[in-house]
């Protein structure tokens, strides 16, 4: 996810663009760039790192005079963060400039086509293809070049485009990536999202798919992909500026929870092709995958919890033994790593010191490292031998939600791939699981819509002292994550326990009214979990159960039941976590905690 901004009007463009980009840094912030029509042609500056670097480089835009320009803040997808890969991208003559948010899915074919025509590429990005393709089609009419270019492009885009021979015009186009345009008495604007231009105008027009916009200083024209001019109505935005960065949500955490259907889809879709799972990033043949005898998963915090789920899923599907380690333990326990083992490190930020150290420890012993990482070009991504990216986009809230659920589905894909090549997963079951996997985003969306019910229940526990989460097997893994979500943002003490283990001591802590959350999504363990619920209720606990829709018995045992839609038991964590995320969130909100920036925590723990 990246941020784009453009302006054309009576003011200096660079300060407007930089200001707009600063409101979009939540969309991506590993590099940035700006292009402005100057005296002779298009001037531009690019930089890696936060937007501040570009602001300093251009003295807040003062060094880039001109009244029409485009800018970009990047969340790397194709190509690591670097000046070459930062946007805007250009044709060789630097007479056409493009900023892009989205993914050009057929960029490799287009790149090959253009290279055959003699075009030379300077970046690793998909976006650069667009600049050269525009050059290929440009014969003096920018709109004609744009229409022809768009007809060849597959994938998603929100574009800002400049043509040096047309300094009085800014062009924009959109398919699947968000784009808005706005106007006030000082000019016209384009942006990826409302926050970028809210300061200048509250009247915005949402550009729809395959629409093209031609903007001048005092007016704009809209076209569809058939080159017909169309009329569009602006809407009035009534959000305040601060809320707008959160797209109207009260907190980034809630916004990111609601992004999960999209980010789970973004993580699985590119890896499901023609009814099969293809994880090219593994860079391992089916034979090499089938030869994997042992897997070590190493991570911290929620990433570790994803690894615990991964253990259950990979072992159940592929029968490959999996060992999961806390990175801070792994790096000092002189681990025993067998020949032929696969080592997987999981990290949202890709900068967690303990996880990076664990990666280096395993690498030092000669093991190939697979990273499951969210931030492209991060330290762990760069030092791993192969990276399976979770396309969750920038995660701002300290408490992870969308990156965690993206890690889960990345592990499901790996488990299914391993099981398939090892022959432990038959064709029918594979297809059934694939269907369940593809249904998860819709089911997550359904569960997110129960937020009012969860909020009402959460408000009964704002003064709680201790809250327990119990589960068996894969439900123990999700209890770990549910417990961490609650305690790290609400500051209420909480523990996750293997339900069968509670009676070996900890059950002594259960008092009258203690809330116990029992997660029971595995049909073969329903009865066992009902016994555990009866056990804790006998000691005064109030039990909230999270269970499958087919579990009709549990309603007689638990005090409050949240049902999750039917899915394959191995994928149930992806659904059970949604009410637990919402529960933790609303308890924290009810207690007036700083949900997005909890005390004592950091988004990335880059120290030991
Ligand atoms: C999760 O909500 C926490 N913020 C924390 O446990 C986090 O998962 C952990 O620090 C690991 O971070 P990473 O995924 O960026 O490596």
List strands and helices in order, with pairings.
Elements: E1 3-9, H1 13-22, E2 31-37, E3 42-48, H2 51-57, E4 68-74, E5 89-90, E6 96-101, H3 107-116, H4 128-137, H5 142-152, E7 157-163, E8 170-175, E9 180-184, E10 187-191, E11 203-206, E12 211-215, E13 220-224, E14 229-230, E15 235-236, H6 241-245, H7 252-258, H8 260-268, E16 272-273, E17 276-277, H9 286-290, E18 294-299, H10 301-318, E19 322-326, H11 327-330, E20 341-347, H12 353-364, E21 369-373, H13 379-383, E22 386-389, H14 402-422, H15 427-448, H16 451-458, E23 466-471, H17 474-490, E24 493-498, E25 515-520, H18 526-537, E26 542-548, H19 554-557, E27 560-564, H20 573-590
Parallel strand pairs: 18-19, 18-20, 20-21, 21-22, 23-24, 23-25, 25-26, 26-27
Antiparallel strand pairs: 1-4, 1-10, 2-3, 2-4, 5-6, 6-7, 7-8, 8-12, 9-10, 9-11, 11-15, 12-13, 13-14, 16-17
Helix pairs in contact: 3-4, 4-5, 8-14, 8-15, 10-14, 10-17, 14-15, 15-20, 16-20, 17-20
2-deoxy-2-amino glucitol-6-phosphate binds at residues 300-303, 347-349, 352, 355, 398-400, 488, 604-605.
